[in-house]
TrEMBL record, chain A:
Lineage: Eukaryota, Viridiplantae, Streptophyta, Embryophyta, Tracheophyta
Protein name: J domain-containing protein
Key word Cytoplasm present: yes
Alphabetized Gene3D superfamilies for the sequence: DnaJ domain, HscB, C-terminal domain
PROSITE patterns noted in UniProt: DNAJ_2
InterPro entries referenced in this protein's UniProt entry, alphabetically: DnaJ_domain, HscB, HscB_C_sf, HscB_oligo_C, J_dom_sf
Residue ranges of domain J in the record: 106-178
From TrEMBL, chain B:
Species per Swiss-Prot/TrEMBL record: Deinandra increscens subsp. villosa
Pfam families in the cross-refs: HSP70
Highest classification ranks of the organism: Eukaryota, Viridiplantae, Streptophyta, Embryophyta, Tracheophyta
Similarity annotation: Belongs to the heat shock protein 70 family.
Coiled coil start-end: none
Region Disordered, annotated ranges: 1-20
Keyword Transit peptide: no
Name of protein: Heat shock protein 70
Position of the signal peptide: none
Keyword entries, A-Z: ATP-binding, Nucleotide-binding
Length: 265, 571
């Protein structure tokens, strides 16, 4: 798992700062915002001082506090702010203006993909780079200040989308969130069977003295990861979310072992 | 000091220039040993030559008594290289800028450079001085760089026949944030406005992206993975980039403060093992001897890139004569440590990039003066399992050319042929975090995080009823050494059992690489998730000169009373 996934995001950060964070997977769940009447004042890791890359413009906050129904989301995204063309995407197709972030557009849609676990190798890179060429803060110097802020936010969101979808585990967790199922990554293991296995692998890693032994465990872990990725895909496809959660828990665990091995190697 | 030397000191905050039509920013590559300037001319990048028709100019500044006071390598014509080593010239400043007198690089330099570098070893700036009329005249690395930049600015203005203010400067990946601050200060002193301080590999990646642009528009081209190895006199950088359609995404970036200067110092010590004590007095004779030794050794190293042996025959005075033949094997053995470090830097970068194996690397791109050393070339190509290196790039000009491209992009220039349809997406070279969990370093932004980046982590109090917390921000440098960037206190934490208050610390690096650290306090169970005190937002670094002393003072004054611990459990 990548660095961003390891970072424990407290519920405080998740809930009160949702709109201002570069990595937060909860932004789509508008119900969270509904429970946050003080959202616009609490959302405070923002300053008034431009240029802020991840700054959600002040105007956006007022919009956000009215975010409580899907209806208002539709309203924001229905017209380009500049030419009023209907249904602009990240960028308006007719005038090229960068649009404010529309959180109803999920990460899969950014890449033109269906909400499915299996994605083809290399299906993200090309689109990722194309978006960045249009949105990256380094390339929008000539646009207006407001549009530059939109671009900074959109660019950051595309980076998040890319890093989230690229790795199977974060992609799985994200898919579950889109379905409204929370994954607690810090959840402790309670199944005795898995617990026993964990202890065993731990010991094996601790006792491994040479890289050969570690490599062997690593390929075992990768095998297990592949297996649980497949079971996640199946479970998710058939909407058995309990089964899917179980797969995620195992993926998380084997992934951590892998990371530990890499550190030791 | 600003009155003494003739440069203007512009305000740091003088950055309002929105509405005027933009001038095209020039690219500057300040090397430890050599510098160059380049600019986008409307269709391509031009290197700017000095009056002696040189594209690469020696990096040094000579202090003199008469006016105009100091002159640097941009405009000064040396009659002989020894002139630069007379004690009056200061050089190697890129290696010394922003470092403390406790830094091994500084103490090593203080023993081998033919001017004065005094180190007290207490965690403050070293004292640097040039010999003018048999008197040591003090200066600072920032001042020397600024004087040099003034000359470069004048040269560019003369060549381009327009004022020059906006610049893109390349910097080593290993540069700490304190070093970045210092070099930015030098630019401000020279009246230059820095649009970007760009890691050298990022500049090279931009040039590479341009060269890989598909010939016909619309064709996005296939992705090519490149490994950039850049080693000059002072620093070594490695980067893995994936390039397609004009966009280079950095996969990993690593840097270290090793370079040609280390090779030179190792070789000098091998030739004259007692040199440290021999030259410690810094009298006129010693300085002369140091100069002779340095020039001869430099020359020998250079020759060993092309021939198997070299003869060194010099008289250092005081009866010390050196006459010996050195062969390539000996040279490689003397510098084994440096070469090993280069190898491990490449390995680390490959590992961090998550490139499955070296066969995925399409191009090995060598940059910097040291890469013509056969041993280094072999190390890089060996690890990457390649028989040849990428030939489309001039190792000595790649960084400055990339900087000029970035200068054009940052100035909003559009090219109708699409040859500025370019972007490098960068990553963070250093881990950033705070002190917590006892005296530990807890990283918040990891290495190789795509920029701009924002990450946060939740901490809690270490003591019962702790109402204040000290946030001490560190950057991890070479060999996991921690550098203090700054600190601030979070106050007004409601009295509560330890482990209850939630203190969120958020780090944000924006597109221009500015780092901000934010902190807020939330009390769980209080019925509100709103912060209980106003949030703090602090631009880093705040600690500057003497940050070494500062770290000690903090721990002396506060001990563990204002400590934090991380608030999360791992499986
Ligand atoms: Zn439009």
């Amino acid at each position: 798992m990548g660095e961003e996934d390891r970072t424990p995001l407290s519920s405080f950060i998740r809930k009160t700062l949702a709109q201002s964070l570069s990595l937060q997977l909860l932004e789509e769940t508008t119900s969270q915002l509904q429970n946050q009447p003080h959202f616009s004042t609490a959302c405070s890791f923002n300053t008034n001082e431009p240029p802020r890359v991840f700054k959600t413009p002040k105007t956006n906050f007022t919009r956000n506090s009215g975010f409580s129904s899907l209806g208002s989301v539709e309203e924001i995204s229905s017209c380009c702010w500049n030419c009023k063309t209907r249904r602009p995407f990240l960028i308006c197709e007719s005038c090229g203006s960068v649009q404010p972030v529309d959180h109803s557009v999920d990460y899969f849609r950014i890449f033109g993909l269906d909400r499915r676990f299996d994605i083809e190798d290399g299906s993200l890179e090309g689109m990722y780079k194309n978006w960045q060429k249009k949105l990256h803060p380094d390339l929008v110097h000539t646009k207006s200040k407001e549009e530059r802020e939109y671009a900074a936010e959109q660019s950051a969101r595309v980076i998040d989308a890319y890093t989230t979808l690229r790795k199977p585990l974060s992609r799985a967790i994200y898919l579950m969130r889109l379905e409204g199922v929370e994954v607690d990554e810090e959840q402790t293991v309670s199944e005795p069977e898995l617990l026993g296995e964990i202890m065993e692998i731990r010991e094996a890693v601790d006792e491994a003295t040479d890289s050969q032994a570690l490599n062997k465990i690593q390929s075992q872990m990768e095998e297990k990861l592949r297996h649980w990725c497949n079971s996640f895909a199946n479970a998710f496809g058939s909407k058995s979310f309990d089964e899917a959660l179980k797969s995620i828990q195992r993926m998380t665990y084997y992934h951590r072992v892998n990371e530990e091995i890499v550190k030791k190697l | 000091m600003s009155e003494e030397v003739g440069y203007t000191v512009a305000s740091d905050s003088d950055t309002t220039r929105e509405e005027t039509s933009p001038e095209i920013a020039i690219g500057i590559d300040i090397g430890t040993c050599q510098c160059s300037l380049a600019v986008w001319n409307g269709s391509q990048v031009d290197l700017i030559r000095n009056t002696r028709n040189q594209k690469l100019m020696k990096s040094y500044v000579t202090f003199r008594n008469e006016s105009p006071s100091p002159v640097g390598g941009v405009s000064n014509q040396l009659s002989h290289e020894y002139e630069m080593l007379s004690g009056a010239s200061i050089f190697n400043m890129k290696r010394l800028i922003g470092r403390l007198d406790t830094d091994p690089i500084v103490s090593q330099a203080s023993k081998t450079l033919p001017f004065l570098i005094q180190t007290l070893g207490v965690g403050v700036k070293p004292f640097i001085a040039a010999l003018v009329n048999n008197m040591w005249r003090s200066t600072t690395p920032e001042e020397v760089v600024a004087i040099y930049l003034v000359e470069m600015k004048a040269l560019a203005e003369a060549r381009l026949k327009r004022p020059v203010r906006d610049v893109v400067l390349t910097v080593p990946a290993a540069f700490s944030r304190l070093q970045l601050t210092r070099i930015a200060r030098s630019c401000a002193m020279a009246g230059l406005h820095v649009l970007r301080l760009m890691p050298e590999p990022a500049a090279v990646a931009l040039l590479y992206a341009q060269q890989q642009l598909p010939k016909n528009m619309g064709d996005s081209g296939s992705e090519r993975v490149g490994l950039i190895f850049n080693m000059g006199a002072g620093y070594c950088d490695v980067a893995i980039i994936a390039t397609a359609g004009g966009v280079s995404q950095m996969k990993a970036l690593a840097g270290s403060s090793i370079g040609g200067e280390d090779l030179l110092q190792n070789m000098m010590h091998w030739l004259v093992p007692e040199m440290d004590s021999l030259f410690s007095g810094r009298g006129l004779d010693e300085i002369k001897s140091m100069g002779i030794l340095r020039v001869a050794t430099q020359d020998a190293i250079h020759k060993l890139s092309f021939q198997p042996t070299v003869e060194i025959d010099i008289d250092l005075g005081n009866g010390t004569k050196i006459c010996r033949v050195v062969n390539v094997e000996e040279f490689e053995e003397i510098n084994k440590g440096v070469f090993e470090k280069c190898g491990s830097l490449i390995q680390q970068c490959l590992h961090d990039s998550k490139v499955a194996n070296v066969d995925y690397i399409d191009d090995v791109i060598l940059v910097g003066g040291c890469t013509n050393i056969p041993k280094l070339k072999n190390i890089v190509t060996g690890i990457c399992n390649k028989s040849e290196v990428y030939s489309g790039i001039n190792p000595m000009e790649a960084a400055v050319r990339g900087a000029a491209l970035e200068g054009a992009l940052a100035s909003g220039v559009n090219d109708s042929f699409g040859s500025l349809d370019l972007l490098t997406i960068q990553v963070n070279a250093h881990r950033l975090g705070i002190r917590a969990d006892g005296n530990g370093f807890v990283p918040i932004i990891d290495r190789n995080t795509t920029l701009p980046a924002r990450r946060e982590m939740v901490f809690t109090t270490a003591h019962e009823n702790q109402t204040e917390a000290l946030i001490v921000v560190y950057e991890e440098g070479d060999d996991e050494k921690l550098l203090l960037l700054g600190y601030f206190k979070v106050v007004g934490i409601p009295a509560a059992p330890r482990g209850v208050p939630e203190i969120s610390v958020c780090m944000d690096i924006d597109a221009s690489n500015m780092l901000r650290v934010m902190a807020g306090v939330v009390m769980p169970g209080s019925g509100t998730r709103n912060p209980v005190v106003p949030l703090m937002e602090v631009r880093m670094p705040t600690a500057d000169d003497g940050h070494g002393l500062c770290a000690e003072a903090l721990s002396r004054s506060f001990g563990s009373t204002l400590d934090l611990v991380t608030l999360h459990n791992k499986l």
